[in-house]
Structures are given as structure tokens and as C-alpha cells.
Design brief:
heterodimer, A: alpha/beta, Rossmann fold, 2 domains, seven-stranded mixed sheet, five-stranded mixed sheet, 13 helices, about 20% strand, B: Rossmann fold, two-stranded antiparallel ribbon
């Protein structure tokens, strides 16, 4: 991975679109892939798969509880089952079924939630999933992925398919900057060091990675060397990388488009506490948002680069 | 099963399974005997009556027929049938619900890998069965999936989400059997949240629906054959049953939904089941 390169951060596709395209590609490679959706395929972008493989696509209607267990049944019958809906519906309405028919018997189901976070914009809080990292991580045996851009999403869809066991992947509606080169390698459970740094570490996931890169560039101009880590895997957590960052920079900021009380940050803090504690600050959400444009909302609710810069300065003062 | 036992032999197996249910729950001092006893003929017909294609010596045979006990609390009947068929050890039945037992309080694939599903949270088995049915169809497999639901369980919304899915996707290799024993934990189903008219509901959801006496083995065999011959829609069998069937003081007695017989009651019940 590049270190201390200037990032152009050109806007690419939304991670949901990258998911939809990767899923269709996976369908071409693997005839066992089946997909379930709950009347949102035009939005989750499973429609790419549905169009190419109608026999392997199961429209479940607006019935997420059933969809989840249908996916578990398909997987038990030997299929590589992906189920998809908006994250808030997939995780909240399907949670009981994820617990009893997927996690507890450890069934090989892949759950992909789209429209995560407040960056969906105008639809407002009923559709904004800001709790699902917490919910997904609470399920024993689940791998929880949160890609930052189209390159990571495509790679992690394939990695999820290779992994035997339940996976939840969080994707978004908003077109996001492309962070990675097309040949970047991703491994489940292994964070990517996007920028090297020695004074402070910024751990980011999802669309906050691009904001973290922007923040690091601002900090660099002020003479602060910030390390930026992409935690595309929230579970299992890359504890070694956290311990090393904590030992080497002695200050960590975690940034996520999720409730700050129950997402990546608290998990990183636990890992640091158990390995090498250091001063930490957390950038995330503290409650439900509202309607608005994605850009307005990210700014109003404190999820842009200047918020990370402020948190970094604060944590540096506590070192 | 290479050769299907006679009706008399099947009735004898039912009696043995009932004795096992009484002894298991009696030894455990907890569990759900009533809804286990009501489903005995349904399971015995499926597993021993030449209905299901299954092989206890090869439980993961890909083309096997599958069975899911969606009303997982009635697992004593499933365990007794599994032991009788040779899937699991018979001499451990009395370890039901004890620490380390494979006979967990609700069916658990981690302890009995030859089970098709871990159940216990009501309302989920029909969806699982339909998913398995869809997988079998994609695999061009003759595998059929049978799922036993409770009548009280039918109050769960997911059952009706799944019912819509089953007919819409024409999952005709799935058979749902409702053990309509009229009693749930808090009392009679009609007094808690009536599910009647149950058969009409299944018909209106697009399922081929058969009503029968759930303790009549011949009727059950005929219904499973009719289901197998029914193409383009799944089949629902609404089985009229008696909770606690076979033990006079347990029949139609809501107390024995979730209470085990005492040592004295076990003795009395076993006398009746000679």
C-alpha cells in the first residue's frame, strides 16, 4: 500500500453498486450462488444478479424475517446464499432469524446491508442504519465487514464468499471516493495501513476512511504525522495492528458512521485496553439524525475530516 | 427404509415412542410432553411408514428427504424417533435436558449433527424448509422437506410470510404438517389467540390443503402420497390431534404443555401404554 502518497480521492461508485456488480460477477463464477432480496433489489443492486440469473434469485417480498430463514435453508441445502436489504431492515427485522437460524447453528449465510449510515440522506432516520455494527458483532461467529470504497467492496464480496460461515457486510448508498488501486489485496481480519504515521493513529471504517485521509493531510500540514488504518473488518478485529498502533503512536482516534456507543470504537478500545492502552477519542454518532442531503448531514452530525482533525488534536493533548 | 412396516408394527412403534416420551420427560423433571405425544403418529409415519427417504447410516446423504421440527419444544418425540431409527443412542434418552446430553432442551445441530435445524424459537422452521426445498429444486434433487408446525406457533407472523413465499415460488417439494392439538402454554388456543379456521387460511395462501385425523396412520400415509403427487404448490396438512394423546390424564390437559409427569404419573402413564 502507498505510504504518504497524495490521494486524489476521485468519486467512484457507491459501495452498494460495487456490491451489486461483484455479486453478479460472483454468480458467473460460481453456479451455487443464490440471492434473496426483500423488494429492494433496484436499491440494493442485487438486480444485476437477478437479471442474469433469475432462477437463482429469490424475491421474498417485504418480509425480511422469512427472507433470512429462507437464506439459511438455502445454505443448509448446499447453496452459497446471499441475502440483502437495507441494513436497517436486514439486521433489525431479521435479527431473531439471524440469531437462531444462522449464528447459533453456524450456517453459511452472507448478509449484505445497503443504505447504511446517515449518508442515505433525504429518507431520514427510519431508513438510516446506525446500530447494525453493534448488532452484527453481537452474533457469535459472524464476520463483520465494512468496506470503504468500490475496490474494497468487490474484493470483500469475494472474500466473504470464500469464507465458510456467516458474514455481514455493510454498504452505503452515497457515491464515495476511490481510495484503493484496483490491485489492492484485502484479507478478512487484517487492517490496511493506508498512510504511515508516528504521532497519532486514525482508525476508520466505511466512508470515514476518505475523511480520515483528508484529516491526515491537514494534520501533516501542521507537522503532525498521522497513521491511517482502514478497518474494513470490524469482526474479527485486527488486535495486533491496534496494539502496535497504540504502542507506536500512543494516541488513537476512531471514526465511524455509526453510533459511537456501540460500534468499531468501543471494540478498538477493548482491544487496546487488553493489549496496550493509550489515549483515545471517538468520532461517530450519538443519536438519530434527520432528512437532508448526505453532505449536509455528514457535516451537521460531525462526520467529516475537520471533526477528525479536532479529535486528533484533542487526543494529542492528552498523550 | 427398505420395507415399510405394517400398520400394526407402526402402532407398536408409536406406543414405544410414547413410553420414551414419558420416561424422558419424567427423568428430566421438565420438558413438553403434551405436544410431543400429539405428534407421535405424524413423525412415526414419516420416519417409519415408508414416506421419508432417509438413511440413519448415512445421515448427510445429499438426496435424503429432510425433516424439521419447527415446534422445537416437542423434541422428546423427535429424540425418541431418532433413537428408534438409529440416528442417536437409545440408552441416553433419559439424559434429556441434562448437562452434556446430546438431547438438549430444544433440538440443537451442534449436539446432533444429523438434525436438519436447530429450532426452539417458534415460527422459523417453515422458512427453513422452503429454503431447503428451493435448494433441492435448483440441485435437481428428488429431496422433499417435511416440517411440523404447532397450532400456537401459527400465531407467529413469519409463518404467513413463509406461506406466501411457498405458494408464490411453487415450492411443491415441501409439506407442512400442523399439529393442531388446540392447546398452547397459557391455555386453549381458541382462548389465547384463535387460529381457526386454520385449513381455510392455508387454502387462501395458495397451499394444497388436507385435513385429517393426525392419529390415523393410514390417513397420514395417504396424505403424504397426495402431497408428493401435487405439483405446482406446496402442501399443508392440518392434522387434528389431541394434546397428551395416549395417556388419559394428560389428554386435552393444558397443564402438560410444559410440565413433566411426576414419578407416580410416569408409572400410571406407562401402565396405560403397555
Amino acid at each position: 500500500m502507498p505510504t504518504k502518497t497524495k490521494f486524489e480521492l476521485k468519486t467512484g461508485m457507491a459501495t452498494r453498486e460495487a456490491f451489486g456488480k461483484a455479486l453478479a460477477e460472483l454468480g458467473r463464477r460460481n453456479p451455487d450462488v443464490v440471492v434473496c432480496d426483500a423488494d429492494l433489489s433496484k436499491s440494493t443492486m442485487t438486480n444485476y444478479f437477478a437479471k442474469e440469473f433469475p432462477d437463482r434469485f429469490f424475491e421474498c417480498g417485504i418480509a425480511e424475517a422469512n427472507m433470512t430463514a429462507i437464506g439459511a435453508g438455502l445454505a443448509s441445502g448446499g447453496k452459497l446464499a446471499f441475502i440483502s436489504s437495507f441494513s436497517c431492515f436486514a439486521m433489525n427485522k431479521g435479527f431473531e432469524q439471524l440469531r437462531v437460524t444462522v449464528a447459533y447453528p453456524n450456517v453459511n449465510v452472507k448478509v449484505v446491508g445497503t443504505h447504511s449510515g446517515i449518508s442515505i440522506g433525504e429518507d431520514g432516520p427510519s431508513q438510516m442504519s446506525i446500530e447494525e455494527i453493534s448488532l452484527a458483532c453481537s452474533l457469535p461467529g459472524f464476520v463483520v465487514l465494512s468496506p470503504a470504497d468500490e475496490v474494497a467492496t468487490r474484493a470483500l464480496v469475494f472474500a466473504a464468499a470464500e469464507h465458510v460461515g456467516p458474514v455481514f457486510m455493510r454498504t452505503g448508498r452515497l457515491k464515495v471516493p476511490v481510495v484503493y488501486q484496483p490491485d489492492q489485496k484485502f484479507e478478512i481480519g487484517k487492517a490496511v495501513e493506508v498512510i504511515e504515521g508516528t504521532d497519532v493513529t486514525i482508525i476508520a471504517t466505511g466512508l470515514m476512511l476518505a475523511e480520515a485521509i483528508r484529516a491526515a493531510e491537514t494534520l501533516e500540514a501542521d507537522g503532525v504525522s498521522a497513521r491511517v488504518l482502514d478497518f474494513h473488518t470490524v469482526k474479527p478485529l485486527d488486535r495486533d495492528t491496534i496494539a502496535r498502533a497504540s504502542a507506536e503512536t500512543r494516541a488513537i482516534v476512531v471514526a465511524e458512521e455509526h453510533l459511537v456507543d456501540s460500534g468499531l470504537g468501543v471494540r478498538v478500545a477493548q482491544a487496546a485496553a487488553e493489549t496496550r492502552p493509550c489515549a483515545m477519542e471517538f468520532v461517530g454518532l450519538t443519536g438519530y439524525a434527520e432528512s437532508g442531503s448526505p453532505e449536509e448531514l455528514l457535516k451537521k452530525y460531525g462526520l467529516v475530516a475537520p471533526n477528525i482533525v479536532t479529535a486528533a488534536q484533542k487526543v494529542l493533548s492528552r498523550k | 427404509m427398505s420395507q415399510s412396516p405394517s400398520l400394526e408394527q407402526l402402532q407398536d412403534i408409536c406406543k414405544q415412542v410414547r413410553r420414551d416420551i414419558i420416561e424422558m420427560t419424567g427423568a428430566a423433571k421438565s420438558g413438553h410432553p403434551g405436544g410431543s405425544l400429539s405428534a407421535v403418529e405424524i413423525l412415526v409415519t414419516l420416519f417409519f411408514g415408508g414416506v421419508m427417504r432417509h438413511d440413519p447410516a448415512n445421515p448427510k446423504w445429499p438426496e435424503r428427504d429432510r425433516f424439521i421440527l419447527s415446534k422445537g419444544h416437542a423434541c422428546p418425540v423427535l429424540y425418541a424417533v431418532f433413537a428408534e431409527a438409529g440416528y442417536t443412542p437409545k440408552d441416553q434418552l433419559k439424559t434429556l435436558r441434562k448437562l452434556g446430553s446430546i438431547y438438549q432442551g430444544h433440538p440443537d445441530v451442534r449436539f446432533i449433527p444429523s438434525l436438519e435445524a436447530s429450532t426452539g424459537s417458534l415460527g422459523e422452521g417453515l422458512s427453513l424448509a422452503l429454503g431447503m426445498g428451493c435448494a433441492a429444486r435448483l440441485n435437481h434433487s428428488p429431496s422433499r422437506t417435511y416440517v411440523v408446525l404447532g397450532d400456537g406457533e401459527s400465531q407467529e407472523g413469519q409463518i404467513w410470510e413463509a406461506a406466501m413465499f411457498g405458494s408464490y415460488h411453487k415450492v411443491d417439494n415441501v409439506v407442512a404438517i400442523v399439529d393442531y392439538n388446540k392447546i398452547q402454554l397459557d391455555g386453549f388456543v381458541k382462548d389465547i389467540m384463535d387460529v381457526a379456521p386454520l385449513a381455510d387460511k392455508w387454502r387462501s395462501f395458495g397451499w394444497h390443503t388436507i385435513e385429517l385425523d393426525g392419529h390415523d396412520i393410514s390417513a397420514l400415509k395417504a396424505a403424504f402420497a397426495e402431497a408428493a403427487a401435487t405439483k405446482g404448490k406446496p402442501t399443508a396438512i392440518v392434522a387434528d390431534t389431541i394434546k397428551g394423546k395416549g395417556v388419559s390424564f394428560m389428554e386435552n390437559n393444558p397443564k402438560f404443555h410444559g410440565v413433566a409427569p411426576t414419578a407416580d404419573e410416569v408409572k400410571l402413564a406407562l401402565q396405560e401404554l403397555q
